[in-house]
TrEMBL record:
This is Hydrogenase expression/formation protein HypE. Residues 57-174 form the PurM-like N-terminal domain. Belongs to the HypE family. One of its GO terms (biological process) is protein maturation. Residues 186-334 form the PurM-like C-terminal domain. InterPro entries: HypE, PurM-like_C_dom, PurM-like_C_sf, PurM-like_N, PurM-like_N_sf.
Length: 360
């Protein structure tokens, strides 16, 4: 367990950790019997390696007093991951599953503490692939300071799923001096992102062999709770905060504008996009503002705190390319307007349809 988490119930003496001899997952591994137990102990329990999970109860139990030391409100989220392919430049479905759920907690000002992990495995998946994914999940969990403490395993017949689906749920605690909401944007606020947009979407295109980039574009997949903690230390009054995943930064900005009934104006020249990603979008008719990200956030902060927040972000590894890209205005509610490179302006609408399916 990480040192921020509340103490778990004592699970008693250590259990025997079984091993799986099968090369591939078969239906017996989802039967509820010994084969399933061996798979869970070999792949997940031994990798996630914490006493709460090792107890192999049907739930994880925590002391409420320990949770309360982190704040006065509980945050709870869940997400499912169905990315294709499972492995891509800069990450895999396991890094997505942990980073995505950690980030969903962190953007409301919560300290993420505990995750669950439920997997739906297609018959025939190589056990070594499961091990690689579990190892990725544990690596990111350690980086984020969270523990994976409970889970579930299901196996479906060949052809009834696509290799591996993962659901992670997360619990965190919101610190008492924070009140972040999409409804809080105010005229004069500054819009900030923590770096290059569209990298994850471009990395998935490369992995699907739908895009040949000369530069090595990696997914930006990473946990953002450390960066967000630094931002909140500088400015607990951050108004809006959200990670820009499916639908990209454009969708997040529209959600803020509509919920707060304001206009958000952004400057195309200030939006950070890598040249290879921008070039690929122009060739394919895509807009990097709508490409998925898995390690990028959009923040709306009071103007008098913007420079201090930016400086703190740029000192953190996850925010080195942080940039202020626009402001909140009191114009027509629900609009996002881009000031273009050529001096004109255009409406940045909510994403309609799906640019790239199975992106996360």
């Amino acid at each position: 367990m990480n040192d921020r988490a509340s103490a778990p119930i004592d699970p008693g003496p250590p259990r025997r950790v079984a091993s799986v001899r099968d090369v591939s997952v078969n239906l017996a591994h989802g039967s509820g019997g010994r084969a399933m137990r061996d798979l869970i102990e070999d792949v997940f329990v031994s990798t996630f390696d914490n006493p709460t999970l090792s107890a192999l109860e049907d739930q994880a139990v925590f002391a409420l007093a320990g949770l309360a030391t982190h704040g006065d409100r509980l945050a709870f989220t869940t997400d499912s991951y169905v990315v294709d392919p499972l492995f891509f430049p800069g990450g895999d479905i396991g890094t997505l599953a942990v980073s995505g759920t950690v980030n969903d907690l962190a953007v409301c000002g919560a300290t993420p503490l505990y995750l669950s992990c439920a997997v739906v495995i297609e018959e025939g998946l190589a056990v070594d692939i499961l091990r690689r994914v579990a190892a990725s999940m544990q690596r990111v969990a350690l980086e984020a300071g969270v523990a994976i403490v409970t889970g579930d395993t299901k196996v479906v017949e060949r052809g009834c799923a696509d290799k591996l689906f993962i659901n992670t749920a997360g619990i965190g605690v919101v610190r008492g001096d924070v009140s972040i909401s999409a409804r809080n944007a105010r005229p004069g606020d500054v819009v900030i992102v923590n770096g290059y947009l569209g990298d994850h979407g471009a990395a998935i295109l490369v992995a699907r062999q739908q895009l040949a980039l000369e530069a090595d574009v990696q997914s930006d997949c990473c946990p953002l709770n450390g960066l967000i903690a630094v931002m909140l230390d500088i400015c607990p009054q951050i108004h809006c905060l959200r990670d820009a995943t499916r639908g990209g930064a454009a969708t997040v900005l529209n959600e803020f504008a509509q919920s707060s009934n304001v206009t958000i104006r952004i400057r195309e020249t200030d939006v950070p996009v890598r040249e290879p990603v921008q070039g690929a979008c122009e060739i394919l008719g895509l807009d990097p503002l709508y490409l998925a990200n898995e390690g990028k956030l959009v923040a709306v902060v009071p103007a008098d705190a913007a420079e201090r927040v930016l400086a703190a972000m740029r000192a953190h590894p996850a925010g080195r390319e942080a940039a202020a890209i626009g402001e909140v205005e009191a114009g027509e509610g629900g609009l996002v307007v881009m000031q273009t490179t050529f001096g004109g302006q255009r409406i940045v609408d909510m994403l309609v349809g799906e640019q790239l399916p199975r992106i996360c």
